[in-house]
Amino acid sequence: MSTAEQNRAAEGGRTPTGVARGLTQGATGTRGGIGESTLRPDGVLKVTGEFAYSSDLWHEDMLWGHTLRSTVAHARIVSIDTAEALATPGVYAVLTYDDLPTEVRHYGLEIRDTPVLAHGKVRHHGEPVALVAADHPETARRAAAKIRVVYEELPVVTDEASATAPGAVLVHEDRDDHHSGHVPHPNIVHRQPIVRGDADAAARRADVVVRGEYVFGMQDQAFLGPESGLAVPAEDGGVDLYVATQWLHSDLRQIAPVLGLPEKKVRMTLSGVGGAFGGREDLSMQIHGCLLALRTGKPVKIVYNRFESFFGHVHRHPAKLTYEHGATREGKLTHVRCRIVLDGGAYASSSPAVVGNAASLGVGPYVVDDVDIEALALYTNNPPCGAMRGFGAVQACFAYEAQMDKVAAELGMDPVEFRQRNAMEQGAVMPTGQVVDSPAPVAELLRRVKAMPLPPERQWETTEGADVRALPGGLSNTTHGEGVVRGIGYAVGIKNVGFSEGFDDYSTARVRIEAINGEAVATVHTAMAEVGQGGVTVHAQIARSELGVTQVTINPADTQVGSAGSTSASRQTYMTGGAVKNTCEAVREKVLAIGRRKFGTYHPAWATAELLLEDGHVVTDGGEKLAPIAEVLEDEAVDLELEFRHRPTQPFDLRTGQGNGHVQYSFAAHRAVVEVDTELGLVKVVELACAQDVGKALNPLSVAGQIQGGSTQGLGVAVMEEIVVDPVTAKVRNPSFTDYLIPTILDTPSMPLDILELADEHAPYGLRGIGEAPTLSSTPAVLAAIRQATGLELNRTPVRPEHLTGS
Amino acid sequence: MEFLRPATWQEAVAAKAEHPSAVPIAGGTDVMVEINFDHRRPEHLLDLGRIPELSEFDTDSGSGTVRLGASVPYSRIMEHLRTQAPGLALASHTVASPQIRNRGGVGGNLGTASPAGDAHPALLAGGAEVEAVSVRGTRLIPIDDFYVGVKRNALAPDELIRAVRLKTATGPQQFSKVGTRNAMVIAVCAFGIALHPEVRQVRTGIGSAAPTPIRARAAEEFLAAALEEAGLWESRAALPPAVARQFATLVSGAANPIDDVRGTASYRRHALGVMARRTLDWTWREYRGAERTESCA
Amino acid sequence: MRVTFTVNGRQASADDVWEGESLLYVLRERLGLPGSKNACEQGECGSCTVRLDGVPVCSCLVAAGQAQGREVTTVEGLAGPEGELSTVQQAFVDAGAVQCGFCTPGLLVAADELLERNPEPSDGDIREALSGNLCRCTGYEKILDAVRLAAARTEGAV
């Protein structure tokens, strides 16, 4: 609906909000193909307020769903009394575990350990216990407040010591998942060692040995669009679900069995997604909304508020990391030993894969022949943790980069030069034994980021006094320059791209080309979740480049087409971009076949030349136009749906960690310039420069946006972002935007970029997944800069003022 | 829930008398958060947004006072009262975000009486009086008597805050607050200072470092005595560093903070000392008419 | 209760409004204007920013009844009568300031008001004016670019 239509609707009554429509975009002025900074096809809808996010959906006669969540972290549920809630006028349904329709009552990304509604026990603060559907959100809230749940509290396990202590309470009894056989304790979800060479022997060759213990706090994705969706019961007994997610088909696989429906009766359509960053890879309201819709026979909308959102999705694993690095006097690393303990919280989510990443990327982008790594994730009664941008590699990078600075200092060597001496390059061997078989310009990225001009000193000084907006503390007026010291820090990181460890990672694209009004136009249909990253922009660019068309329609993502895999792991441009390219190539061949059939006899070039589709024509590689595509097609349409896979990977050996586990690696380097009010412990990041190799920038404007956005999330966890969990009660202490702080525009500095494009010959267009690498190195670069300014060791992130003042 | 919409101040006062549990709402920046998050379900909401005089301020140069309507938004205070109430204007600039500053006013801060309210240290340092009105009449509550407990104030159930009265500043005032973000942040702790040269007094205010907003009286008395003794009010000479240090120590000592999710007690004490020293430095330099030290944002 | 006010130049009213509802809820759920967003509902993100009698406010913190008889402008009211994008809207699209777009409506309303008040803002002015609007995707660089671009285009047009 247009704005005007909406206003009319507002006048004359209400009409359902449009939930799904294609995005059609022609090119303006340029070809709009790959390599151009084509603008988003959903941009106009997003700036006019017309873009329908999952929380904007509306349906005639719709009810509001509400979730009652546990107020304690670990307890036996003695009883649940819903009678009074059910009797509340306006309430249509109240559901508990006992109301679930089938014997499938758990879900999970990898291990189905998460109850749809709590069964006899709650394992973390905020676990869903009951559902209410009512005619107004306030009615639903009031009714939920009338549900009486009697808890008998159980002891909590909150860290490695308590989780693995003799007699420790087991978070999950009777585990039978595929990791349960090899873990040393039932409260350990998964453990991955990686052993290569002989670290003990290498340690004897080391001239310096540096050890450190590091702590990484619990970060939240803090996407702005809250978890939400609309479930509409269908006449065939199925359900139509409109939802914001990262992976429709993974949701579907988990939802349908719980509802007792075949997958084809659960029709999912992606609604507008207000950011994701990993936090929508697990289910939130999906099953709950469907259950309420099927029970009441009415459409049900569920929208979490910000408080609930902090309980509605997994967070980044907090971690404790212990490292030992050795080096020779000449500045060559001899060995690395490390142990990474990740807190997975009460349910597994993607903890096993996070462990694999933390272990395999645990030494960073450096050549080290002798390594001894152990990574594991715990089950505790803390909030469940899973995917967030950087996925296990973030925590490791924070620690190994701090170590690199420490070793350099011990050697009296420049920290950038020390990194460069140990930097991996193409052909290097990872601790897993995998050979890095595409460009790995680690030393070059460091060189470039260091070569960027530094921001001027004392930028806060103006002729009218100190501009507090440019000083630590900002508008709070804490300093006019007193105590302010500048520091500069560097870091570089390595992130895998795509799903690893033998996962059958594929994407699907359906592409159609046809002639409409004498013009060849293309339609691209995938199930890719557009979460803001710009996949829809890139798909249209690929279709234009491959099919020579101008107008491309991107159909809504839904489950009527094959899986696109997850919008995570920096994989969508590679995978669904690759699928669109792959299908376009097949479509092109069909178009050419039709052309040859129709026109082959009129021009010899049809038979001999390498033919392309460009500017709406079939052209020879010499540029000769043979025929308009529209004339080739006439009334015929070419319509294909094909799957695309990246190179297969292997699982890591459970004992040695050896194996070609990853598809591709991505590298970024940062230089942070900070000013620290050393007396008050307040930090202003003055500049955060980044150099990154992107293989091929399909859309340079979007590439810059990804790098700057990712860098800012790394900055956030360096200086402010942390979910604080009470160590005694395992309850979350700051589930709000008042106390979980993310950077404002006054916390975020200028972020100059230097983008390198070294093609990976194995990837579509040579591209490299880019979304996550900048989130890795940003945090340690900021920490390094703060260390330089303060001279403090700072083994914990985020840094809080009291850590900098020693008070 | 009932929504009361008095059109005049008299109607508002009458409504509060009739429904003493009614929750007044003006900018809504506290009350609506509590309603949105299910923390509060009052029987009556008393909307004060339609009463023009609450959003007005008068400066009376004759009596040297500012009468600031309870609902004058912070954005107008920081813009229009920089001369008459510089401490409060600076504090107003640190409140939340531009959108919140456009709605919130000191009436809300006083009504909520949270120790973290940004206006309190400035009101304490400025020696404000709260004009409380009920059908029984009007009384002026000295700010020193206003905060009586954690999120509790001296208002009677039938009283509404009409305005705050402040003496027009006769000397420099400063305000500083620590938060862990450079904008839109709740105070970890805050400090306000006002020099009152006409009566040779110094007043202070501390926020978020005790169950209520408080003054650092020992620090005030020490500083006033030190200034008096050395004749500094007249000479406007530089402040001896030892005096500034002792002042900072006494401010620190006046606090009674706790550890919470926003910061530790010991950090709060430490930060108050730093802010006390710096803001004293800024105010004293301004008093001396020396180099310009104010901020320009 | 019934609430009537002007939104984007037109009279609008809603019946059966619960007294605890916010202006944001009424706009989104009762008036078919979901452009203003619901990211935090506690005044800490700016995604619900609208202009109330011309002044940018968080509509989540305005009680619906407080809007009675007032003038409200939402993101849906920024474009021209024929749907042509305003300068600041076009600049956000052109500069790449939109990713997921959830913060965009609030930022547009705030940026539009800034440029009306201060047609040539410094970077510091832009940062201060937008410091109540959180964005989680962009890192704000392209948002700064967009506001600079809108300011330059406005000046160029004068």
Automatic annotation (TrEMBL), chain A:
**Residues annotated as transmembrane:** none
Question: Domain named Aldehyde oxidase/xanthine dehydrogenase a/b hammerhead: which ranges?
Answer: 48-155
Q: Which InterPro entries match?
A: Ald_Oxase/Xan_DH_a/b (IPR000674), Ald_Oxase/Xan_DH_a/b_sf (IPR036856), Ald_Oxase/xanthine_DH-like (IPR016208), AldOxase/xan_DH_MoCoBD1 (IPR008274), AldOxase/xan_DH_MoCoBD2 (IPR046867), AldOxase/xan_DH_Mopterin-bd_sf (IPR037165), Xanthine_dehydrogenase_dsu (IPR017609)
| MF terms in GO | iron ion binding; oxidoreductase activity
SUPFAM superfamilies (UniProt xref): CO dehydrogenase molybdoprotein N-domain-like (SSF54665), Molybdenum cofactor-binding domain (SSF56003)
- UniProt region (Disordered), positions on chain: 1-39
Q: Which PANTHER family match?
A: XANTHINE DEHYDROGENASE (PTHR11908), XANTHINE DEHYDROGENASE SUBUNIT D-RELATED (PTHR11908:SF157)
The name this protein carries in UniProt is Xanthine dehydrogenase, molybdenum binding subunit apoprotein
UniProtKB/TrEMBL annotation, chain B:
Output the Pfam families linked to this UniProt entry: CO_deh_flav_C, FAD_binding_5
Instruction: Name all FAD-binding PCMH-type domain ranges.
Output: 1-171
Query: Which domain of life does the UniProt lineage start with?
Result: Bacteria
Q: Does the keyword Flavoprotein apply?
A: yes
> What GO molecular function terms would the record report?
FAD binding; oxidoreductase activity
List the keywords (alphabetical): FAD, Flavoprotein, Oxidoreductase
Which InterPro entries does this entry report, sorted A to Z? CO_DH_flav_C, CO_DH_flav_C_dom_sf, Diverse_Substr_Oxidored, FAD-bd_PCMH, FAD-bd_PCMH-like_sf, FAD-bd_PCMH_sub1, FAD-bd_PCMH_sub2, Mopterin_DH_FAD-bd
Instruction: Please state what the protein is called.
Output: CO or xanthine dehydrogenase, FAD-binding subunit
| Source organism (scientific name) | Actinacidiphila guanduensis
TrEMBL record, chain C:
Which keywords has UniProt assigned to this entry?
2Fe-2S, Iron, Iron-sulfur, Metal-binding, Oxidoreductase
Please state every residue range assigned to the domain named 2Fe-2S ferredoxin-type: 1-78
Q: One GO MF term, please?
A: metal ion binding
Under the heading CDD domains, the entry gives: fer2
Q: Which organism is it from?
A: Actinacidiphila guanduensis
Official protein name in the record: Carbon-monoxide dehydrogenase small subunit
Keyword Iron-sulfur belongs to the record: yes
